[in-house]
């Protein structure tokens, strides 16, 4: 019985020679010659299959069907690396933040607010560059920074960074302001009644630009409380800090491109030389690898969950590739 069962078994895989070697021509039956092809007669199951489906045994469709049946399915199980269990931090609205809203006095205590990039001091990005050397026009409150209770000395906050959504800006008589404060949703909710009647600050809604199809929101003009007749906009260096800190990957103009390269301490890349026309940056960019590597970790690992940014504006800048006028259209 076992020997009889072996007749129905097929090989798990075919050799390269069996699969791709050209087959000999098949002899056609005639009335004078009723002999079959010199090739081996197929087994009973294959003969029956060919009769029902009308497929040629040597056709590509028949071979693909056999491969589909015999090839084992590859099962892939994704291993998701989740952060270790953490205790959420308790929200705190500091009185100096409220005083900033009601009186317009900017806090100076580092326990209340700090420069935005200093808030990344306990991330893996800070291992590549000293964050205290970056400009400090953009501020963040301690409640915005603190999302969980730290684990200890080896605490790394890459997976616990809060996204930017609510921004406080001081009232300005000029067309641009150079300081802004990022606050947490909790602070925005608690301060909203005071903000609505304040003559000293405005609350703005912000989100980084996800792709070229969306309008950039770094002018902070999408949603403003309270509404004012004259709405100043962030100065270009401040808008650059805001976009880079939030993880925005697309620029809207050549001026913003130059400001971004200046922040990263790179050459302008738009001086019209041959290297810029070919999308290659100047050799002077090589000395800024520490800051570039810091920004790569911030953009890819912290803000984008390790997604590729190679084809974005920021990704090309960090790869020392210059942009041209057509890239912003």
Note the main attributes of this structure:
alpha/beta; two-stranded parallel sheet; 12 helices; 8 strands
Describe what this molecule looks like in 3D.
The structure is a single chain. With 329 residues, the chain is of the alpha/beta class. It has helices at 2-5, 16-20, 44-53, 60-70, 95-103, 142-145, 185-196, 236-246, 254-263, 274-277, 289-302, 313-318; strands at 113-115, 138-141, 166-170, 176-177, 180-183, 201-205, 224-225, 233-234. Strands 1-2-5-3-6-7 form a six-stranded mixed beta sheet. Mean pLDDT is 82; it is low at 271-284.
Helix content: 25-40%
Overall residue-averaged pLDDT value: 82
* Overall shape: elongated
Low-confidence stretches: 271-284
Structural class: alpha/beta
Fraction in beta strands:
5-15%
Give a count of the beta strands, DSSP E runs of length 2 or more. 8
Number of helices: 12
Would you list the SSEs in sequence order as H and E?
Answer: HHHHHEEHEEEHEEEHHHHH
Oligomer: single chain
Largest sheet: 6 strands, mixed
The Rg value, from CA coordinates, equals 32 Å
Strand order of the largest sheet: 1-2-5-3-6-7
**Alpha-carbon distance between the two ends:** 75 Å
Task: Please provide a brief summary of the model.
Residues 18-32, 68-84 have a biased composition (Basic and acidic residues). The protein has 329 residues and is of the alpha/beta class. The chain has helices at residues 2-5, 16-20, 44-53, 60-70, 95-103, 142-145, 185-196, 236-246, 254-263, 274-277, 289-302, 313-318; strands at 113-115, 138-141, 166-170, 176-177, 180-183, 201-205, 224-225, 233-234.
């Amino acid at each position: 019985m076992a020997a009889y069962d072996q007749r129905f078994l097929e090989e798990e895989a075919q050799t390269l020679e069996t699969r791709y070697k050209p087959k000999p021509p098949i002899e056609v039956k005639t009335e004078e010659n009723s002999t079959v092809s010199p090739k081996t007669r197929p087994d009973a199951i294959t003969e029956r299959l060919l009769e029902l489906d009308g497929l040629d045994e040597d056709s590509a469709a028949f071979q693909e069907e056999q491969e589909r049946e015999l090839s084992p399915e590859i099962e892939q199980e994704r291993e998701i690396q989740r952060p270790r269990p953490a205790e959420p931090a308790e929200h705190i609205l500091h009185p100096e933040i409220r005083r900033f809203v009601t009186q317009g006095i900017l806090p100076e205590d580092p326990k209340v607010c700090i420069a935005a990039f200093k808030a990344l001091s306990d991330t893996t990005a800070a291992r590549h560059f000293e964050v205290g050397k970056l400009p400090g026009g953009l501020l963040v409150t301690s409640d915005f920074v603190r999302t969980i209770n730290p684990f200890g000395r080896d605490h790394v906050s890459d997976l616990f960074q809060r996204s930017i959504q609510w921004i406080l800006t001081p009232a300005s008589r000029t067309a641009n302001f150079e300081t802004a404060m990022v606050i947490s949703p909790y602070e925005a909710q608690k301060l909203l009644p005071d903000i609505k009647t304040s003559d000293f600050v405005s609350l703005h809604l912000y989100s980084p630009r996800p792709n070229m199809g969306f309008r950039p929101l770094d002018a902070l003009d999408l949603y403003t409380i309270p509404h004012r007749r004259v709405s100043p906009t962030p100065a270009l260096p401040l808008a650059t800090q805001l976009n880079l800190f939030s993880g925005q990957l697309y620029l809207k103009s050549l001026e913003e491109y130059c400001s971004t390269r200046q922040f990263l301490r790179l050459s302008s890349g738009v001086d019209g030389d041959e290297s810029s026309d070919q999308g290659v940056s100047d050799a002077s960019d090589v000395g800024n690898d520490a800051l570039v590597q810091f920004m790569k970790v911030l953009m890819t690992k912290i803000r984008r969950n390790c997604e590729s940014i190679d084809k974005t504006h920021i990704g090309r800048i960090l790869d020392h590739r210059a942009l041209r006028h057509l890239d912003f259209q």
